[in-house]
Amino acid sequence: MTQDSISRRRLLGTAGAAGAAGLIAGGAGAVAADRVSRDTDSTALTSIGTTSVAFAGEARAHGTPQAGITTANQTHGHLIAFDLAPGTDRKATAALLRRWTEAAREMSDGRAPDQDSSGIALDAGPSSLTVTMGFGRTFFDKVGLKDKLPQALSPLPDFSSDALDRKRSDGDLWLQLGADDGLVAFHALRTLQRLAGDAARTRWYMAGFNRTPGATTEPRTTRNLMGQIDGTNNPKPEEEDFDTRIFVPKGGDDSSPEWMAGGSYAVVRRIRMLLDSWDNLSLAQQERVIGRRKSDGAPLSGGTETTPVDLNKFAADGSIAIRGDAHVRVAAPESNQGAAMLRRPFSYHDGFSDDGTPDAGLLFIAWQADPMKGFVPVQRKLDRGDGLSRFLRHEASGLFAVPAAAGDGEYVGQRLLEG
Ligand SMILES: C=CC1=C(C)c2cc3[nH]c(cc4nc(cc5[nH]c(cc1n2)c(C)c5CCC(=O)O)C(CCC(=O)O)=C4C)c(C)c3C=C
Ligand SMILES: [Fe+2]
């Protein structure tokens, strides 16, 4: 598995003039509206808008993962979960997934879906838009597919640091949207939310962000709102065991059925950072909590950001370089019988609480072939002995089965609903 292939194309309109039009006029039963045409003879100011990530097609045939998992983190993220409306049966659900798939395909390619004349994304190219679709545990019973419920979707255990808001957790269906332009991302969100029509209702919604490409002099691992470089020791697509750790094998396995082959499980946690307490620590204290230097992300055992962490290294004064409760020690695969996940988060900031503290943190999204061999054992360990957990509060949680990309003419999840 290599990182998502990215192609560059001319601005929206050149890519698909026929689709570049029309105001979305009401979800499932949309009414055609005026089409909008515009001059496309312009030169892009940067390559950000012109970059597209394949939703399907040759680069993403059936059996390959959906976009938005190994795709480079985008600047703008939207997470939205839906519950099926009472009376939405399997047929109506399939129709919804087909509407979403077709619209996502068009928009990822820089074209506006039919009947969209909202104009929101009119001047922009695809801007690396990705749309990723998943199914929650509650979905299966509602559409009469209980026998297809993967064991891997068993509820996550409770953790002592949880302060979960159940209304902002779980959900029958989940969409993750990412793009490097705020209007493109909002346009996709608005389009898909309206296309839900009467079939599904929004259960919860969260918005997040990352660094803008080009904000740094060279491409860098992103920083989180505590200021740390975050993402360094993620599994890498070029590693031999990457696919087996992150994606369900062909044919399924003990915890996943065949329809999930090539797919992955997303654990979503809204993790609030207690930033006022964190900011009271000195720089040296903050670095000891993580086990890495803040400035460049180098491990406290020495080297640069990419130097492997040496958990057995002692400093000159005889103290252990990376403390027993340092986050990188407690979370490392070596401390968790090899358990690993691909972390692909967005930061969030939703204003300030009455006491003036920021409602800010991480929309933590972890991808793995089996949550019992990824998130769960690591979070169990963090819950017991992580120095960072004193500065975090897990406020919402979800677990979603994200099947492989849709093949030509297919919709996402077709093999689940019709297989
Ligand atoms: C259950 C898994 C994890 C949660 C929850 C989690 C929350 C969390 N982490 C940071 C900041 C950093 N995490 C870093 C590394 C790291 N974190 C996890 C897992 C969870 N983190 C793993 C598996 C690792 C890699 C460990 C290793 O093998 O070295 C780092 C260091 C840089 C890096 O490797 O990415 C930082 C910084 C925050 C702020 C946070 C919750 C808000
Ligand atoms: Fe972490």
UniProtKB/TrEMBL annotation:
Residues 221-405 form the Dyp-type peroxidase C-terminal domain. InterPro entries: Dimeric_a/b-barrel (IPR011008), Dyp_perox_C (IPR048328), Dyp_perox_N (IPR048327), Dyp_peroxidase (IPR006314), EfeB/EfeN (IPR006313), TAT_signal (IPR006311). It catalyses: heme b + 2 H(+) = protoporphyrin IX + Fe(2+). The keyword Ribosomal protein does not apply. It is found in: Cell envelope. Its cofactor is heme b. One of its GO terms (cellular component) is cell envelope. Its main location: other. Keywords: Heme, Iron, Lyase, Metal-binding, Oxidoreductase, Peroxidase, Signal. The keyword Iron applies. Residues 213-235 have a biased composition (Polar residues). Its EC number is 1.11.1.-. Residues 211-240 are annotated as: Disordered. One of its GO terms (molecular function) is ferrochelatase activity. Residues 66-210 form the Dyp-type peroxidase N-terminal domain. PANTHER family: DEFERROCHELATASE, DEFERROCHELATASE/PEROXIDASE. This is Deferrochelatase. It comes from Streptomyces zagrosensis. The lineage of its organism: Bacteria, Bacillati, Actinomycetota, Actinomycetes, Kitasatosporales.
